[in-house]
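Deviations from the work plan: none for this task. Representative record:
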Amino acid sequence: MKIAQVSPLFESVPPKHYGGTERVISYLTEELVHQGHEVTLFASGDSTTEARLIAPCAQSLRPEMLRYPWLAYHTIQMDMVAEMASEFDVLHFHTDYLHFPIAKRLGTAHVTTLHGRLDLPELEPLYKRFPHIPVVSISNSQRAPLPWGDWHATVYHGLPDNLYSFVPEAGNYFVFIGRISPEKRLDRAIDIALQCDMPLYIGAKIDKADEAYFEEQIKPLLRHPKLQFLGEIGEREKRELLGHATALLFPIDWPEPFGLVMIEAFSCGTPVIAYPHGSVPEIMEDGVTGYTVTSQEEAVRAARNIHLIDRKGCREAFERRFTATHMAENYLRVYQQLLSG
Amino acid sequence: MKIAQVSPLFESVPPKHYGGTERVISYLTEELVHQGHEVTLFASGDSTTEARLIAPCAQSLRPEMLRYPWLAYHTIQMDMVAEMASEFDVLHFHTDYLHFPIAKRLGTAHVTTLHGRLDLPELEPLYKRFPHIPVVSISNSQRAPLPWGDWHATVYHGLPDNLYSFVPEAGNYFVFIGRISPEKRLDRAIDIALQCDMPLYIGAKIDKADEAYFEEQIKPLLRHPKLQFLGEIGEREKRELLGHATALLFPIDWPEPFGLVMIEAFSCGTPVIAYPHGSVPEIMEDGVTGYTVTSQEEAVRAARNIHLIDRKGCREAFERRFTATHMAENYLRVYQQLLSG
């Protein structure tokens, strides 16, 4: 009989130490080979077998057998999508890559928007395996680590044009919005505000992974009376806070694929002071929607001159490039392309 | 146009707080509806949309957007399997449920052995969604939480019959093998050994998740001179240790789907003292391969009488029920059934 054995990839088959599942798979596989069956083992490349070995990865992945509830629900979801696929002209996925194997076999046009950073080591073998899955980037810079993807377009994020109201006259404070994590560089934002002697409002959540960073690096800085730490804030508070700010400080230190809060600021008329990482150079129009800076010195100078930026120009830039209507039009063009191609 | 939008399920669409991806999906979806397209959104049930909502789960899953490298490699693996499916008579999966949506569409007979515990809450909706995926349990008790699975057989794990050698004369010590975690109850094993005034060798690894438990609950107990903590041990050490033990102590406190170490003990002729959880009553033959006990008092009595168990009877039980040959034969019966059904 021709038999495929599909093993988890967490441990080699057989495993080096513990790993009951992989050991049993090994015993079963070798026994079937021994009995004369034609066996193929899909397992990590450090496996040892008399069967034909097909290895999706060179090394076994990690010792802990991690199982996650979210995976069950995404598996259910993909089955639902597959079952109903023929009802649709286009399937638009936003679920990373989980659906790739099934999407390419469904016979319905599909496209995937990649929302995350793409410089993770496991994505190189993944996208080399799936070179013909149509993908959309949310900035051109996001694509850099995966030039072999089947890129159909960059579609910038958009907001409903009435989601934020234009605020013609700003208050007198800076704002920092987002997560508190090393790559978001709240420490830089604090330094800029204090050097300018301006109040800084901080609306930011702290992920579990960043709690130690917050306690050690950020909390000691927050004692200054010019700084207001608000924790995680809701949409309404954010609108208020962002709309009346003199500027949004966005001194990031990582290749952020798309800085949504920047276009939220623009839509209120609030200019942005940003470091030019990731998507920032594509989103910012230097001197029009704020200033792009490469050092704290420049940032402080830009912050002191921020009144030179016309708030109406920021709003106009938003309307010209970053509305939900633009986004939808751009996606519809992609859908049409898929259907006519 | 008829468009499906497939969102991650981590946050509702739109999200309650942060969650850039789900917000953008919401903006896009509503805009497409607004433009007159027929849009279906596959997203968590707490989403709000003008599109048709299809919810694989009632609530969004969790706030952290977790991405895991292992998922990329298992995705590659499933694509490899799918591409080659027609080469095989049978596909035998050991990868939980990740492959269910694609396996059922491949047109090749397939079966999945479930190696883990099945009393996790997310598995109920999952197996209700996939009632016709042929599955095999590794003990009858393992099935209890999922009676609606398409169970084709229980196939007990097996070991190559020459993997361990029969040791006719035991040494004079007990052994505990496995992980150190609350449900494995090393504390009970220690108590049994000390009450019998017997040495206990402990060959056990400590997962990251169990480090605090080890430090707080177990480490203080290990100071006694009768106890030898060896940490994680290799296969060869294990054979030596297990083969010459007076008995394996297996006082578990959880529904272990299959206690592989019990049949390893049998194959050396080493009897087992076990609490009757999970698969234990199916694997143990009380009075033949050791003793099943329900209290520490009984366990100590059993340990003192363990010389009444014939080591040859343990080995014979192994040869009768738990060799790799038996396991392979049982699986081949399942494969044949699938092909003729």
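Residues 2-160+323-340 of chain B form a domain with the Rossmann fold fold (CATH 3.40.50.2000).
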